[in-house]
Each structure stands twice: as C-alpha cells, then as structure tokens.
Predict the structure.
Amino acid sequence: MVSSKNQEVSYPEKVIVVCPNCSQKLRVPVNLGKLRVRCPKCKHDWFWSSNTNISNQIERIKEKIARARQLHLAENKAYPEFYKNTRILTFQPPLSASEIDLWETKYNVFLPEEYRSFLEQIGNGGEFYDEILSLKRWAVGVDLDDKDQELKTPSQPCLLLEKYESDEMWEQWLIENIGEDWAEKYYQSLWSPHLGMITIAAEQCGALTYLVLNGPLRGRICWFLDYFSAPTFESAATFLDWFETLLDKDLNRLESRNH
C-alpha cells in the first residue's frame, strides 16, 4: 500500500499460479473474481478463479495425481506383466479458455465451473482405469441420432429428479413429463433422458457417466443401469468432488499395498 497526504493507493494481493500447459509460474491478483490468464511462455489461456474452494481443490487433486503416479510406477516395476498395456493417470493436454468458449457458444450453454477448471488446468480427458472423455466426445451415449437435435441437447432443461423411490414412480414421471408415448419418442430420437447432459466418462464394462449442465441438478453426476432405467445420482456435489473421490479410493488402495 502506498500512502500520500490525501489518498491511499491499494495494490491487489497476488498469488503464484502454474500454467497447466507448460508449468510456467505466473503471478495473478486475488480478490478480483474470475480472471482470464494467458501464459507469456506458451500462450495457453484459461480462467483462474479466486474462489478459494475450487482453486484449493484443483491444487490438491494435482498433488494427489502426482502421488498416485509414483505409486503406480512402483507397482508397474513390481508387476510388469499386469501393467504392460495400461495407461493409468495419463491426461490429454488441457483446453484453453478460448477453445471452451467456442464449445459453449456452439451448444449455447455454460459448463459448470468445477468441470471447466478441470478441463483447463488438469486435462481434456484421459485414462484413469475408466476413461475420462474429452469434451469433443461429449455426445457418446447421448441417444439422439438427429444432428440438429444433438446440437440443442446440452442446452435443453434437465427435468430429472434426484431420486425415484420405485420403478413405478419412474414410469409415472415419464408419462407425466414426456407422455404415454415416451418409448416411441425415444426410438424416433424425439426425446432422451440425457437432455441437458454431456457424457464425461466411460467404464471398461461400457457403462457411461453423465454431467448435468442446467436445471436444479446442474453440476451433478449420474449414470443409468440401462436405457429405460431411472438415473442414479452420485452423492458428490460437483465434478471435482466426484473425481477426487475416485482418486482417493485409488490412493487408499495403492498406499495400503505399500504398508
């Protein structure tokens, strides 16, 4: 802070952040909300949030990924045949803010900030036992064959409830919200339970995981046992919570083997 007789000039406090693309360190001001940061070295740009919870969680996840990689390397050496063709905890390069802006403009929707932070600061998909899909592959398993309808799918309202007490309640919801001909509409690509969602992960068994983009359940993660079953919503509040929970399970398994 610089003082004079009649006024004080306050300079914003700054913090060091690391470019997710090239690891260059930058100093950025805090307490100014969401900032668009551009790396002077590699020109990668991303949104950095001074939201303490998101920033701290991203850094914590990065540290856990690094620790898990070290433990996986140790297992790789101990069990080379088992790990021969596996690529665990490898991520594609992060997306820039500009690339995500283009996607959001194309589909007329805003991604939840936690998921966007993952794409910008950790990676655009990767291998983590199950596959974390890149943003380009968002429509895998979104059952709408019509390309015009697919273009509108992410911005459609997600009408699903967090919980259905029984199969009968799910079927009643379908009739009340979609109509008695809901199955016919599904087969004609006029409706899908995945409206307002994108696909974010694919398990080795073929099951898919979805992220809700709008409505009361925005930011929540869910999956379906089959095409006509009610959704099951994860308890995790956000994408980052869901991913960190998976990472913690992996770390607990690895660390228990090393003790």
Summary: The radius of gyration is 21 Å.
